[in-house]
């Protein structure tokens, strides 16, 4: 992709799943990748994989739900590797439950990771990007935030918030040379989805999902990094404020 080589890319939730796949792709494109995650073992494993393929990375073990911790981690990354050019907000968490069976403590946990996390990351990183006059952000939301998802009410609300936040910031910051876009995965074979299917009906649920998807398969983490790299690159220089679903045709709009 044009314009990625030599850039510093910060990826949250890069220890596993989609985030790890994105980090590996951006490193392969020539970026130095900042790996932000609470999973130290997974984060170091991702850094090792990047090193094996000849790339460069920097690991920060950080709770993105805490604004002060994000400030410290971003300062550490930029001191070590230089200014952040690309931000990918990928970190997320959920547990399947009908909304009426949940409690406020659970809402707080979901909101802290899936909404406050991106808010904190944007607030800290975009100030720096705005001062420099350039930057690109790719937010990983979910089709749950576009069309809803049974058993994911609070998560869906957070992801819908991320979509709206992206559009709003794209309008506010276009004059500062910053582009923001959203990628919405459909059902994907990750730890979150597997946690939804651990019960006795898990296999049946997975088969039902596959049948509902026109491509007749779940997404995999490797289905997303190409689009993320494109949106972060100079090849997408005239694209901002967009929401793109990657769902095997499960959701379509136009």
Report on this structure:
Helix content is 47%, strand content 15%. Helix 1 runs parallel beside helix 2, helix 1 packs across helix 9 and helix 4 runs parallel beside helix 6. Helix 1 links the parallel strand 1 and strand 2. It has 254 residues and is an alpha/beta fold. The two termini are 26 Å apart.
Helix tally?
A: 9
Mean pLDDT: 94
Residues in β-strands, percent: 15-25%
Structural class designation: alpha/beta
* Helical content band: 40-55%
Radius of gyration: 17 Å
Q: Would you identify the regions where 5 or more consecutive residues have pLDDT less than 50?
A: none
Q: Give a count of the beta strands, DSSP E runs of length 2 or more.
A: 7
Order of helix and strand elements from N to C terminus: EHEHEHEHEHHEHHHE
Question: What general outline do the C-alpha atoms trace?
Answer: globular
Strand order of the largest sheet: 3-2-1-4-5-6-7
Largest sheet: 7 strands, parallel
How far apart the termini lie comes to 26 Å
List keywords for this structure.
seven-stranded parallel β-sheet; 47% helix
What layout of secondary structure does this protein have?
Elements: E1 8-12, H1 17-28, E2 32-37, H2 40-52, E3 56-61, H3 67-81, E4 86-89, H4 104-132, E5 135-140, H5 144-147, H6 153-173, E6 178-185, H7 191-196, H8 202-212, H9 225-232, E7 243-246
Parallel strand pairs: 1-2, 1-4, 2-3, 4-5, 5-6, 6-7
Helix pairs in contact: 1-2, 1-9, 3-4, 4-6
Write a brief caption for the model.
With 254 residues, this protein is α/β, with parallel strands linked by helices.
């Amino acid at each position: 992709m044009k314009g990625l080589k030599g850039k510093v890319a910060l990826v949250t939730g890069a220890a596993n799943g989609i985030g790890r796949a994105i980090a590996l792709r951006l490193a392969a494109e020539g970026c130095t990748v900042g790996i932000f995650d609470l999973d130290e073992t997974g984060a170091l494993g991702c850094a090792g994989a990047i090193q094996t393929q000849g790339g460069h990375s920097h690991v920060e073990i950080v709770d993105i739900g805490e604004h002060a911790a994000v400030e410290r981690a971003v300062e550490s990354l930029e001191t070590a590797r230089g200014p952040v050019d690309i931000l990918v907000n990928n970190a997320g968490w959920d547990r399947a439950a009908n909304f009426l069976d949940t409690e406020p403590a659970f809402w707080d946990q979901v909101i802290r990771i899936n909404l406050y996390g991106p808010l904190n990351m944007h607030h800290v990183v975009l100030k720096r990007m705005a001062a420099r006059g350039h930057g690109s952000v790719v937010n990983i939301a979910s089709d749950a935030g576009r069309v809803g998802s049974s058993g994911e009410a609070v998560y869906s609300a957070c992801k819908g918030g991320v979509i709206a936040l992206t559009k709003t910031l794209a309008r506010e910051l276009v004059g500062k040379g910053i582009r923001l876009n959203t990628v919405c995965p459909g059902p994907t074979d990750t730890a979150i989805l597997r946690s939804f299917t651990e019960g006795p009906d898990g296999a049946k649920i997975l088969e039902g999902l596959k049948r509902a998807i026109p491509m007749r398969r779940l997404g995999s983490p490797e289905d997303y990094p190409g689009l993320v790299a494109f949106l972060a690159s100079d090849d997408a220089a005239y694209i901002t404020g967009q929401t793109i679903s990657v769902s095997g045709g499960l959701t379509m709009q136009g």
